[in-house]
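Recall that a protein's primary structure is simply its ordered list of amino acids. Everything else, from secondary elements to tertiary packing, is in principle encoded there. The following example makes that idea concrete.
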Amino acid sequence: MTLAVTGATGRLGRRVAERLAAAGVPQRLIVRDPDRAPSLPGAEAVRAEYADGEAARRALDGVTTLFMVSGAEEPGRVETHRTFIDAAAAAGVTHLVYTSFFGAAPDATFTLARDHWATEEHIAASGLRATILRDNLYIDFFPLMVGDDGVLRGPAGEGRVAAVTQDDIADVAVAVLREPEKHANARYDLTGPAALTMREVASTITEVTGRQVSYQDESLNEAYASRAAYGAPAWQVDAWVSTYTAIAAGELDGVTEAVATVAGHPATSLADHLSALRTT
């Protein structure tokens, strides 16, 4: 098998693996726990973790094209990414497709976007041919960001975010993986069809689902205080809060046509995504 997919037990990787299987494309699923991997025609599951370079090298033996979903959010993520990328290069992988983040930069307001920039830099230094998918915020997460009280709260001000669905990202990824040579050394900024304020997000959720949702623009102090009850480590709270401050700073604004160009269909709007959820 010359194509491998990571993250098949997660939301995005599973979508990609299922689409490839439906198209009759053989694949190797690189997972931490093969027992949790989806059972798909033409797919075999192999155990390996990003942080275990030797296991990753063995798991990738014979693979030429690799879909790498970014690892779990944790302080050492960049180092585990580097280990896995080095293993891929050592195993003979020639094309790496990586899920990065919109506006990845060393000084990005969203703290985790800095990890993605560092990973992109390591991919470039590895000598691997690559395609970088810079995903905007996931539309799928908006309903989950609403509190039990029906309030979507955060310090986003009147900034806009061009969020994109995971299904659209998966469609783009599959198109790239099936014809990687057409997308060699390309970087795609993946967005939805519109850039919305959080107030517009709240009103759209209300209109489509019937659930009354409002937006509360918090100050930084209020944002940290309202999240203190979760008991999360400081780096994680910083990531949560900086999602909103990145929106306020305009760093998640800007609509592109990359989904339509690569996947061959228009990007899905928040309203359409919510409507589809109601019918499933």
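The chain is about 40% helix and 20% strand. The two ends are 34 Å apart (CA to CA).
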